[in-house]
Amino acid sequence: MEFPIFRHAIYLNSCSLGALSLRSRAKVNEFLDLWETRGAAAWYDVWWAALAELRERYGRAIGAAAGTIALHPNISTALAAVAESLDYTRRPRVVVTSLDFPTLAYQWLAKAGRGVEVVVVESPDGIGVPLEAVERAVDDRTALVATSHVFFTSGAIQDVHALAQIAHRRGAPLLVDGYQAVGQLPVSVEALDVDFYCSGGLKWLLGGPGVAFLYARAELLPSLAPGATGWFAHREQFRFDPRELVLHDDARRLEGGTPALLPVYAQLGGLDLLEEIGAEEIRRRTMALAEDLIEVARAAGLEPKVASEPAERTAIAMLPSGDPHRDVRRLAEAGIITDARPGHVRISPYFYNVEDDHRAAIERLISDR
Question: Among 21, 105, 186, 188, which residue has the fewest nearby CB atoms (within 10 Å)?
Answer without folding.
Answer: 188
